[in-house]
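Exam revision sheet. Question 4 asks you to relate a sequence to its structure. Input first:
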Amino acid sequence: MGFEAFFNEHPLFHHAELVEYLKNQGNYNQNTLKATLQYHIAKQHLGRIRRGYYLVTSRYAPGIQIENDHLLIAGYMAPDAILSYHTAMEFHALAYSVSATVYFNSAEKIGQLICEYGQYQQISHPTGLQPDKLFLETKLHDRLGMDIHVTSIERTLVDCLQRPELAGGWEEIWRSFESINYLDIPRLIDYALQLENATTVAKLGFFLEQHQRQFSVPEDALEQLASHRPKSRHYMDKNYQGPIKNMKRWNLIVPVNIIDKLWEEPNNDSI
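Answer key, structure tokens:
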């Protein structure tokens, strides 16, 4: 049992995993390991994702195409990697458009990573989420026999409302989540309150109020969110320069184009 067996069992791996495997097999030699990795990289059997992280290419194993699966690669970018924001929207087949960047949460300081296997952006875990709750509202999904963490639809909505710039903007969020018929309201509220961010709670409350009939949102759920709204008026989008309106129930100043969904108006050129 040597390198080839490990590559067959671990199409994505970290250097430390290979070292541990070889030690357990009684087959570890640092010089041999270095030379073997260099050989397989030169033969394009292995590809470097980032320092210490590798994938097995289809040149070595024709039956797999991991180098083309950006979501799987992101899911193995760090031990605590969680696919999130617009990438989670795409994973759940909600996204209205496609993003060239793959987003994932991790505590590791990776930042933006552009390599031959795609463009990735590491985002810190949501502020306010306690260390023992980092995987709250995430699910393990099998992908080519490997498990990756992805935020649930409910967490994805809340995270995107908190960081709309990572979700393609307000129109993308509204169009994407209006395409579904069901949201678990108690789970949505529970996760939003875990973040301890009054503005995010107000954004969620405003969104659910706009879609109260679609998602069968009970009035007491809106009241629960309203009780955690900001004590003073907060802007939903500080960078927006157009007409705004104060939604008093939420102490939230909201762009009129979101309230009225102006993107749904027909283009004059098409009339």
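Marking note for examiners. The two ends are 69 Å apart (CA to CA).
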